[in-house]
Design a protein that fits this description.
Blueprint: E1 17-21, H1 24-27, H2 40-44, H3 63-77, E2 81-85, H4 88-91, H5 101-116, E3 120-126, H6 132-136, H7 144-160, E4 166-171, H8 173-182, H9 197-216, E5 221-227, E6 231-233, H10 239-262, H11 285-290, E7 296-300, E8 305-308, E9 319-321, H12 341-354, E10 361-366, H13 376-394, E11 399-405, E12 424-427, E13 432-435, H14 437-451
Parallel strand pairs: 1-2, 1-11, 2-3, 3-4, 4-5, 5-7, 6-8, 7-10, 10-11
Antiparallel strand pairs: 8-9, 12-13
Helix pairs in contact: 3-5, 7-9, 8-9, 12-13, 13-14
Bound molecules: 5-hydroxymethyl-3,4-dihydroxypiperidine.
5-hydroxymethyl-3,4-dihydroxypiperidine is lined by residues 23, 26, 172, 300, 365, 405, 412.
Length: 452
């Protein structure tokens, strides 16, 4: 299907922000430069078989050196805001204590470059690249890591807080816990299944402590970004499937949103977890996590998840299912089903679940993997999802922005460079950047929104 021109997109409120997102390990490269310490991803990519074809983020998009060219690409799009992440081990090579000024200098240059281009910097503190030294002390299984996140937050806010007003503390803590600690397919590569649950609480506690450190330094808006998915059943689902879907929803959607927005954990008995997550939750923690309330919730959406009752050897109270054959869904190159209306369902569902406890939402990631330059399929995807956001706003959900994942093709974790999410294609041999058709589409869409 050829999409409608951006001119025919619904008009969004004037304050609505148009952005694009990346993350440090996925784009920066310069893995051992200017005193940067190793992260868990620098270590994980060396494990045989951990990443497809042994790809690593050692060079990635070389954004560390080419950030000025990348800011020019953002300016060409007319972006209001750029969401990037800060590499913790660039700032604190051992995760705590000694500060590396050259790391801070890089983000200083990036922030100044963005502001000079009229683009708001929106940094995320933790997008999965924990300093390896902290992993050696237990990583997010240890409560102390939460305090280290707050220490690091204070260091970057001392340096950037005069120009950065808005911060995101964590990126997709559910995915980090599940892929990194429960299933071992991401760094740090631990396969603890439900033994990973303390990682949820320690990340949330880290959010609360880091948010306090940022506020002390004058931060105006603090968000956390959660990956959320509408949970769906297959046709003919029965009672056991519904119980499985509820258990999955508790894990994927509520484990992080409920403590942040309601100050309590959802019922996790299906996972054999006690109310205090096996001793991880201490008095006062949930207050720290939930108050003062978030100024905004970042939501990353890619697709719904279909769930069935677990098979006999599942080890968890659900099984993931393939989407139903009917009505049939387009698939991205990653194989993910394309379901734009799932985003409207998700946003209106969050509003129904949390009511007035739901702060304004920003879609901090949405996008798809397609390799071609003439990427009409990505245009279709983006067009459909932007309309889905408009439908949610129309239905009364307060959504303040939409960020495409991603500005550039980049290191897609365990998939290496095989998945191409960029509005801009990157040739990883030459580092040549070539804007795709979707880049022009997004540029025109933004221009239409800004200038009517
Ligand atoms: O590339 C990732 C990103 O780091 C976190 N959200 C999902 C993206 C696509 O898989």
């Amino acid at each position: 299907m050829i999409p409608l021109s951006p001119r025919q997109l619904p008009q969004f409120p004037a304050v609505f922000e148009w952005g694009a997102a990346t993350a440090a390990y996925q784009v920066e490269g310069a893995a051992e430069e200017d005193g940067k310490g190793p992260s868990i991803w620098d270590a994980f990519v060396r494990r045989p078989g951990a990443v497809r074809d042994g790809h690593t983020g050692a060079t990635a998009c070389d954004h560390y050196h080419r950030y000025a060219e990348d800011i020019a690409l953002m300016r060409g799009l007319g972006l209001d805001a750029y969401r990037f992440s800060i590499s913790w081990p660039r700032i604190l090579p051992e995760g705590t204590g000694r500060i590396e000024p050259r790391g801070l200098d890089f983000y200083d240059r990036l922030v100044d470059g963005l502001l000079a281009a009229g683009i708001s910097p929106v940094p995320t503190l933790f997008h999965w690249d924990l300093p390896q030294a902290l992993e050696e002390g237990g990583g997010w299984l240890e409560r102390d890591t939460a305090y280290r996140l707050a220490e690091y937050a204070g260091v970057v806010a001392d340096r950037l807080g005069d120009r950065v007003r808005r911060w995101i503390t964590l990126n997709e803590p559910f995915v980090h816990m599940a892929f990194g600690y429960a299933f071992g397919v991401h760094a740090p590569g631990r396969a603890l299944l439900t033994g990973a649950l303390p990682v949820a609480h320690h990340q949330l506690l880290g959010h609360g402590l880091a948010a306090a450190a940022l506020r002390e330094r004058g931060a105006e808006r603090i968000l956390t970004t959660n990956n959320c998915t509408p949970v769906r059943l297959l046709p003919g689902a029965g009672e056991a499937d519904r119980a499985a879907a509820e258990a999955y929803d508790a894990l994927h959607n509520r484990l992080f949103n409920d403590p942040l927005l309601l100050g309590r954990y959802p019922d996790l008995k299906a996972y054999g977890a006690s109310e205090d997550l096996d001793g991880a939750v201490r008095d006062g923690d949930l207050d720290l996590i939930s108050s003062p309330p978030l100024d905004g919730l970042g939501v990353n959406y890619y697709n719904p998840t279909w769930i069935t009752a677990p098979g006999p050897d599942a080890g968890l109270p659900f099984d993931l299912a393939e989407p139903p054959a009917e009505p049939g869904y387009e698939r991205t190159a990653f194989g993910w089903p394309v379901v734009p209306e799932g985003l409207t369902e998700l946003l209106t569902g969050l509003r129904s679940r949390y009511g007035d406890a739901l702060p304004p939402i920003t879609i901090t990631e949405n996008g798809c993997s397609y390799p071609e330059l003439d990427d009409r399929r990505r245009i279709d995807y983006l067009d459909g999802h932007v309309r889905a956001v408009a439908a949610a706003i129309e239905a009364g959900v307060d959504v303040r922005g939409y960020y495409v994942w991603s500005l550039l093709d980049n290191f897609e974790w365990a998939e290496g460079y095989h998945q191409r999410f960029g509005l801009v294609q990157v040739d990883f041999e030459t580092q040549t950047r070539t804007p795709r058709e979707s880049y022009a589409w997004y540029r025109d869409a933004i221009a239409t929104q800004h200038h009517g």
